[in-house]
Amino acid sequence: MAIARRSKNKFIIDSFLLSCRIFGRQVENALLKELIRKVKKQTQTINGIYNKSKKNKEFSNFFIENRFIKKTNKNFEMKITDYKYKKNQLFKIKYEKN
């Protein structure tokens, strides 16, 4: 599950939840790519927030490995204007609106 909220002229990924059993099998990258594809028409920038904890150490370089630029210790940013999307072959995506 990934949650991105709109804040002014960008989206902020504030929740990115995966089972530890699936992390590292490229599902996290496919989910991020799909999220970027979904918001690309609405913004030029997407930010990710990383809150360091004992349970998410393996996630510490996730945004950097996915071409985000480190802005602060917690905030990472990507300009998605020229982002090239390749269709996800791993799983089916379902969207829910609030």
Structural commentary:
This protein is α+β, with helices and mostly antiparallel strands and 98 residues long. The protein has one domain: Aminopeptidase, CATH 3.40.630. It has 2 helices and 5 strands. It has helices at residues 27-39, 62-65, and strands spanning 2-7, 10-16, 45-49, 69-70, 75-79. Strands 1-2-3-5-4 form a 5-stranded mixed β-sheet, covered by helices on one side. A hairpin with a 2-residue loop joins strand 1 (2-7) and strand 2 (10-16). The longest helix is centred in the middle third of the chain and has 13 residues, at 27-39. The radius of gyration is 13 Å and the shape is globular. It starts with a strand and ends in a 19-residue tail after the last strand.
Largest sheet: 5 strands, mixed
Q: Quick one: how many beta strands?
A: 5
Work out the helicity level.
10-25%
CATH domain class: Alpha Beta
Low-confidence stretches: none
| Overall CATH architecture | 3-Layer(aba) Sandwich
Q: Determine Rg (CA atoms, Å).
A: 13 Å
Strand content: 25-35%
Shape: globular
Please write the string of helix (H) and strand (E) elements: EEHEHEE
Quaternary state of the chains: single chain
Tally of individual helices: 2
**Coarse structural class:** alpha+beta
Mean pLDDT: 86
Tell me the name of the CATH homologous superfamily: Gcn5-related N-acetyltransferase (GNAT)
Please name the CATH topology. Answer: Aminopeptidase
Spatially, the strands of the biggest sheet line up as 1-2-3-5-4
Q: How far apart, in Å, are the first and last alpha carbons? A: 15 Å
The tally of domains stands at: 1
